[in-house]
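Side project, low priority. Logging it here so it doesn't get lost.
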Amino acid sequence: MHIDPSFADFVRYVEPFAEVIVVSDGLDMPARHALRDLEVPIFANRLRCRDNGLELSFPYANAACEVGSGVCKCEVARTTNAGRGLATVLIGDGRSDFCLARSVDFVFAKGTLRRYCEAESIIHSPFETFAEVLTTVRGWALREREGFPREDACPMVPG
């Protein structure tokens, strides 16, 4: 599993003011190994070693999931933000992000998700690396410190 080299810098920068969670339709074991140096919650399909082989389970599945993923990202977003009223930012790249892209406050998209957002006219910010996402978030933080309202700090989000 490849992790963007600038992901750790992104996490360290946003930790003081944002909750970062990793929600993947992949497997938890490789994700936990790849992110072992970061303390971020991971929601993914479970892979366990058993005496007689491997066991795969889907603890975040939802039969009503619109994209049919093993991890229903919409449900994870609802339960992790339940009653807290926090803004939700999606940073994604694939089909399992399609449904969630319609309901979050802001989308950073690449790959298949970017093409989907373009086709569906979902407002998003294209990116290739977390360094680009970090630059944008730093710009938002700078504008907020300078007294700009949130809508001005994030002009692509409809007010």
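Brief comment: The chain has one domain: 7-152.
Revisit when time allows.
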